[in-house]
Amino acid sequence: MKVIIAPDSFKDSLSAQHVAEAIALGWQQVFPDAEIVNCPMADGGEGTIDAVLAACSGQWREQRVQGPLGESVLAKWGWLEAEKTAIIEMAQASGIQLLKPSQRNACSSSTFGTGELILAALDAGAKEIILTIGGSATNDAGTGLLHALGARFLDVDHQVLPAGGLALQNLIQIDLENFDSRIQQTKFLLAADVTNPLCGPNGASHIFGPQKGASPQQVLALDQALSHFADVTAQYFGFDQRHEAGSGAAGGLGFAAKTFLKAEFRSGVEVIAELNQLADKIQGADWVITGEGKLDQQTLNGKTPFGVAKIAQAANIPVIVIAGTLGQNYQALYEHGITAAFSLTSGPSTLEQACQNAAELIRTRTTDIARLIQSTMPGK
User: Whole-angstrom Cα distance, residue 290 to residue 301?
Assistant: First the structure.
C-alpha cells in the first residue's frame, strides 16, 4: 500500500510538515508496512516556505527589513541553491500578523519590506523569484515594494509620495530611472489563491480593506486612489492590468508585480505542487491524504485540499481530507475529487484546546480512518 500525505498547515497550531508526520504516525499504527510519502503543501499563504523547503531541501535565510508601518522586523525567506530560486513570503515582511488589531492601517501601511526581500534575493543571485502574497497588512498597490527596488512615485511638486495607498491619489509621475536593472533578467512568479481585480466592488480595497483597518469612508478613498494609480500606470506603460485576475491580491501588490515585474500569476497550490513534484509522487498510490484547518466552500477557491484533489483525481486516486473543522457546504468538494472528509474533535472543545492537542487529534483520527479502510480490505 502506497499513501501520499499532502496537507497544508493548521493555522496557529502545526506546520504542514508536522501535520504530515502526525497523519503518518496514525496510519502506520494500522498499516505498519505501508509506503508513506510525506509531501507538505501550501497554497501561497503563511507556511508556504516551510512546505517547500521541507520537500526540496532548501535553505532558510534572514533579512532585517521594514515592517508594514516602517518598524524593523527580521524576515525569513527561502533559497533553493541548485535552481537559484528564491521563495519570498510577503507576510514575513508586510504581513497582518506583524500588527496588533489596533495598529492596522490600510491607508499608510507599506510593502517596502517585501521589496527589500526581493533585493536580498537578487543580491544572492536569484534567477527566479516566487512571491507568495497571502496574509498582507497592506493596501498600497505594491508601490512600497517598487519603491524599495528604485521606483519613485511623485506628486505635482516632484516630491516622493509618503507610504501607503491613500497617498496615491496625489500621484502625478512615475520615475523608473533608478529601477533595479536586474529585474529584467529575473523571472517572477506570483503565487496566490486570490483572483480579485485591483479596483471596484470586488477589488482590493472593498474586499480586504476592512480587515486591514479601513473604515467605510477609507475604503472608498483607497479604491479611488488605486484607480488613479492604475490610470497613471496605464499612461506610462501603454497597457492596463487592473481588471486582470489576481491584480487585487495583497492590497494590489498583484497589480504591481504583473505590471512592473512582468510576473506570471498562478494558483499558489499549483506552484507548490510543481516544486514538490506532487503529480509524480502520486503515481501508483492507493490513497492520498490532505488537510487544512477549516474545510468549507472557501476551499473551492484554490486552497490546498482542492488543488491536491484535482491532481489526485486526474490519476484516479481517492482522496481523504482531515480538517480541524468542517464548515459550510464542505460537501461541495465531493464533486471535485475528494472522497471523504473528517473533522478532528469528537466532542465539545475550545479552539485553544484543539490547537494545543492538534497533533494527537490528527494521529488518532487517522488511525480511526485507517481501521475503517482495513475492515473493507479482502480477507477481513
Answer: 16
The residues with which 78 forms a beta bridge, in sequence order, are: 60, 87
Clarify whether residues 108 and 209 are in a common domain. Answer: yes
Q: Is 240 helix (H, G, I), strand (E, B) or coil?
A: coil
Domain-embedded: residue 229: yes
Residues ≥6 apart with Cβ < 8 Å to 4: 37, 39, 278, 281, 282, 285, 287, 288, 289, 312, 317
Note whether 328 and 369 are same-domain residues: yes
What are the phi and psi torsion angles at 4 (to 5°)? Answer: -100, 125
Helix locations, 177-261, DSSP H: 204-208, 216-237, 249-260
- Please write the tens of the pLDDT for every residue from 188-216: 999 887 889 999 999 999 999 999 999 99
3-state secondary structure of 122: helix
Tell me how far apart the alpha carbons of residues 179 and 152 are, in angstroms, rounded to a whole number.
Answer: 8
Element housing 322 (H / E) = strand 319-326
Whichever domain contains 35, its CATH number is 3.40.50.10350
How many folded domains does the chain comprise?
2
The model's pLDDT over 158-185, given as tens digits with 9 standing for 90+, comes to 999 999 999 999 999 999 999 999 999 9
pTM beyond 0.90: the answer is: no
Q: Quick check: 105 and 138 in contact, CB under 8 A?
A: no
pLDDT digits (tens, 9 = 90+) for 270-325: 888 988 899 999 999 999 999 998 898 888 878 899 999 999 999 999 999 999 98
Task: Mark whether 8 and 140 lie in a shared domain.
Answer: no
